[in-house]
Amino acid sequence: MSRSKPYHRGNVRESLLSAATTLLDEKSVEHLSLREVARAADVSHAAPYHYFSDRGELLKATGDECMRALVEKLESAPGRARDPLKRLAAICAAYVDFAAERPHAFTLVFDGELCPPGDPSAERAPLIERSESLLYQAVSAAQQDGWRSTAPTLELTNGIWATAHGLATLVTEGHLTRAQAADALGAVLRPS
């Protein structure tokens, strides 16, 4: 005879998202099931369906939470650095570090099927805006301080993001070590 799960106090949706995020630290998205998330959240296996229509919807919401964690890491990265180029380098390094520390979460954040480019969820849209604005402002400040001052800021920002993202992906796939990625960032962000 099976025993039903006891009544779960608190916010079940948040518990499910927290459990899914934690499980992503251990396994890839492909190996994440609704039952496993429910078990980790200590709720019945049917509970996720009260909050998410299917696995894809849970993964989209989990991706939003992972994006929030990435943005918070980027925002805290510059710390007390006063030099604009060092602030930019710290943001880029934090981006690579997030991917290295949480590769499955990083992959989920940029999953084009779950979050099609140009069509973010209502939760993700402001997070994307925050991250883009942070990077743009950091690049602009470095330019105002004399670094690559003649380059168009938007194009340079996109290039820096592409560089950080490429390095992050190479680290998560095992093609570069974090130290090699840091050296590459240092070469790209060298003072002019």
Offer a quick outline of the entry:
Helices cover 65% and strands 0% of the residues. It is mostly helical and 192 residues long. It starts with 11 loop residues before the first helix and ends with a helix.
Molecular structure report:
This protein is mainly alpha-helical. The protein has a domain at 61-188: Orthogonal Bundle (Tetracycline Repressor, domain 2). It is built from nine helices and no strands. The chain has helices at residues 12-24, 34-41, 48-51, 55-76, 84-101, 103-109, 124-144, 153-172, 178-188. The radius of gyration is 19 Å and the shape is elongated.
Write the layout of secondary structure elements.
Elements: H1 12-24, H2 34-41, H3 48-51, H4 55-76, H5 84-101, H6 103-109, H7 124-144, H8 153-172, H9 178-188
CATH topology of the domain at 61-188: Tetracycline Repressor, domain 2
* H/E element order: HHHHHHHHH
Q: Which regions contain 5 or more consecutive residues with pLDDT less than 50? A: none
Mean pLDDT across the residues is 94
Q: Tally of extended strands?
A: 0
Strand content: under 5%
Described by strand count, sense and barrel closure, the largest sheet is: none
Task: Please identify which CATH superfamily of the domain at 61-188 we are dealing with.
Answer: Tetracycline Repressor, domain 2
